[in-house]
Amino acid sequence: MAMRKVGWAVLFVLLVSGLALAREARGPIRILSDLEFTRENGVIGGSGTPEDPYVIAGWKIEVTDAAFAIQIRGVTRPFVIRDVEILGSRVAGIKIETTRNGRIEDVFIKGAPTGIMISLSRDIWIERVKLMECTDAIRLLFSQALRFGSLWIEDARVGIWFTGTTGTELRDSYLSAELGVLLEVGSKDNLFVGNGFFCRAAVRSEGGNIWYKGERGNYWDGFSAPDEDGDGIADVPYRIYIDEVDRFPLSVFAFPKLNWDP
After folding, report:
1. Residue 82 is part of a domain; what is its CATH number?
2. CA quadruple 50, 54, 58, 63: dihedral positive or negative?
3. What is the mean pLDDT of residues 86-94?
4. Within a domain: residue 257?
5. Are 113 and 89 in contact (CB under 8 A)?
């Protein structure tokens, strides 16, 4: 037992320091209350405080018959999902529902109908996540105050699908999809800045969202506009919807750097 505890401690240190090289295969994770943050449910450390969140890390979850690889519902204690590889699922790779105070970072998801699904939740941060070959990479349902940064979305039908979701930010991310961002059912007051849209159709919106901050907007592949002073900002605004304009479209795009090696 003592040796097993030492082994878990060493794994935790390696994961936190970014030195873990191999992920351990395991089955789906299902956490439906704050009391279910246990070792059996993939938690390798943490005490559930803002300074020391529960840590779910170091796993490879390959799913063929389960609805979700990771499902977290009805949780308020801080947690982080880190350094996890997810292959497949029947519904979604990760589902977060009626939850707050969570982070997902340095995660790879491939081949799920929906990569990440978040519903009725708030205060969720998602950074440095790569999603490939998911029909809908991210679905957001009636949530608010979500933060996304340095995402890599590739080969999707819809990159990020907002339904009734407000006050959310997407920054410095790469989107390659049939439709980059879909905003519907009152999805407004969302901020998009520093992103690269390499999509057949970049955005479908009902209005009321923000596409630049300060003098920095987004990169729109196929948008041809001069940058006479070479400051990296196109000289012509990019129109998205009736009341939505990117006034400072980027003429060059810096691809996000991910700490991920599947």
Report:
1. 2.160.20
2. negative
3. 98
4. no
5. yes
